[in-house]
Each structure stands twice: as C-alpha cells, then as structure tokens.
Amino acid sequence: MRREMNGFFSNNVQPDFEGFRKCILREEEPRRVFFTELFLDNPVREALIERFNINRGWERDKTFDFYREEIALQRFLGYDMVRCLIGPLFPSSIDGRSNSTALSEDPVASGPIQSWKDFELYPWPEVAKIDLSVLDWLEKELPENMKSYVTIPAGNYKMLLGYENMLYMMYDDPVLMKAVIDRISEIHASFARTVCQYSCIGVLWGSDDMGFKTQTFFPPDFIRKNILPTHQALAEISHDHRKLYFLHSCGNLETIMDDLIDIVKIDAKHSFEDAVMSVAEAKESYGNRVALLGGIDVDFLCRSDEPALRKRVRKTLETCLNGGGYCLGSGNSIAEYVPLENYLVMLDEGKNYR
Questions:
Q1: Residues 6 or more apart in contact with residue 166 via CB below 8 angstroms
Q2: Which of 28, 145, 169, 343 would disulfide-bridge 177, Cβ 3.0–4.6 Å?
C-alpha cells in the first residue's frame, strides 16, 4: 500500500558535505548515515517530484529548473550532492556512419573507430566548447552545505571501438587501440581540470565497467598498462584541487583492486553485486583502505518485501559503517524498474539508523 508523505522520512537530515567527505576519507566516525547514488532514472525522479510536491508554487525558469528541482529533491531525500549533467560528448558515428571498416554491424561488438582513417575522421569533442553556464549558476545557487558531482565516462573507449573488436585489436593493432584510449584520456583530463576550478564541485565520479561476474574484461596487465593511467590522472587532478575521486566499475575487479587503491588512489569504489562480491565482503577485504559506496543489491532491492529490506539495510550498516568509509545506496543505480516504495524504505531505514 502506498504511503503518504509523512509515512517516510520522519527523521529528516540536513545536507553536510564536509561530514560526507570526512566519512569517505575515514577521518572520523560518521555522526549519521550518509547516502550516495550514481543516478536516479528520470521516471523515478519525476515520480518523486510529483509525489512529494517538490516544485510546488515555483516560478518557472526554463534554463535552470532541472537543477532547482535537483537541489530540492536531493535535500529532501537526504543527499549531500547533486549531479551536474555536463561533459564532453562522444558521437557514436562518423558523419552518420557507425564505422567504415567494421567487422560487425552489432553496435556492442563494433564501434565507429576501426582504422587509422576512422581515428582521423572521428569528430573528437573539444572541452573549450562545453557550455559551463550551469556551473556558474551552481556556484551562486547551491547551498553551502551541498556540493555537485560530475560523472566522467572514462570507459568511452569501449563504445568507440566495440567490445568484440577490441579483443581483436588488442593483438592486431595495439598501437591504434592505445591511441584511442590516450585521446579519450586527454579529453577527460582537460575536462576534469576545467570543472575542478569550481568550488561547487566536490566529486569527480569516473565510470568504466572493467569486469563481469568472474573476472575482468581484459587481462589485468593490459588494464594496468592501458586503462588505469586514465583513472590515475583523473584522481591526481581531483586531489590536486581537494576534490574526491570515485570509481564506478561493475564486475569482478579482485585482481586489480590493489592497483585501484594503492596506485590509482581512488577515494571510493562503486558498484557491488551480491553474485560477484557483496559490499559486506568488500568491507572486510578493503574497508580500511578505501571507501565503499552503496551495495544494497539491485535485484534484492527490486524483489524483497519491506521487513527483509529493512533488515538487510540494518545489517549492512552494522557491518560497513564502523570507522566510516561507507555510504548507503543501491548496488548500482535506481533504475526505473526499482519499486519506488523499496527505494524509499532503504533511505528511511538509513535515516532512522542509530
């Protein structure tokens, strides 16, 4: 049965990004449960805004209405950050063509760059042309106790080359593959240096799925040599500007976790799936070295009833919260198929945890 507004969140919390930062860095025992989520699918976001009358009575300002709503919604839900939707756009085609010399028509298997000619013709994005007006707006309008984060899709190389074709290219043309990865890395680093000039930015959140259920997509040594330098550069830029660097990466990364922690120096790891490694297991293995984000398995979040979900959240907090370095959230993101009530139950249990 759907609850009314007062059925959830009787214990509201105030945004506290500095406390969130100290929790991530394990500098002190957190005084409350902090939340984090990579994103909410738009249908979920819209349903929450309507259900809780988030924008009731506002004068409309088309330019920045989305971010006004985001600030109000995230504050209501109990988050300390809002997502800023800017960044370089990497087209999926060259002049309308998916690629010129593709081995497959499957967009997952192949991508627009399959040759040096494709590399030269590809319309690489220019950071200098990105509209940063929203950051100027956030500098003025974002509450002092909140920050914004940008996601950096560092795994673009998979889209430009294609998963299947990359496996061939690793051996057939490793120089071209490295050139693509390096060009993408340069663009992301330039973007990172640009946004890090803004005080409203608190976190750079890299995204790069590097594994599946049993192992990494590519040999660990290949990842260390070709892929991790991008994340290391982004982490260094973040830290040089006193920002945090989070990594979203699905799959089994056990063989490269030490590299991510000790060499790349990520501040927090996201995502977790029970079938690969639960967040409780990750806490035992890595919790004294890196922060862990989310971990309430999405399948469980979708299928469980309220008592089971509340019990799972409490158990996770009991295991992961000690010493800091943990923020409550889903194992991946709040997709539109996640029952809204279950999402709210997860947050409500976190708000009431003592």
A1: 157, 158, 177, 218
A2: 169
pLDDT in tens, 283-306: 999 999 999 999 999 999 999 999
Contact 187/127 with Cβ under 8 angstroms?
A: yes
DSSP 248-301: E--S--GGGHHHIIIII--SEEE--BTTTB-HHHHHHHHTTTSEEE--B-HHHH
Q: Which residue has the tokens 């738009």?
A: 42
Domains in the chain, please, with CATH?
20-91+124-352 (3.20.20.210)
User: DSSP per residue over 219-253, as a string?
Assistant: -HHHIIIIIHHHHHHHHHHHHHTT-EEEEE--S--
The pLDDT of residue 99 is: 46
CA angle 257, 18, 34 (to 5 degrees): 65
Residue labelled with tokens 């007006």: 133
State pLDDT tens for residues 160-207: 999 889 999 999 999 999 999 999 999 999 999 999 999 999 999 999
Residue 209 above 90 pLDDT? Answer: yes
Cα angle 128, 130, 136; round to 5: 105
Indicate the pairing of strand 326-327 with strand 291-293: parallel
Q: Using CA atoms of 77, 83, 84, 87 in order, give the dihedral in degrees to the nearest 10.
A: -160
How far apart are alpha carbons 283 and 290 in whole angstroms?
9
For residue 201, give the amino acid letter: I
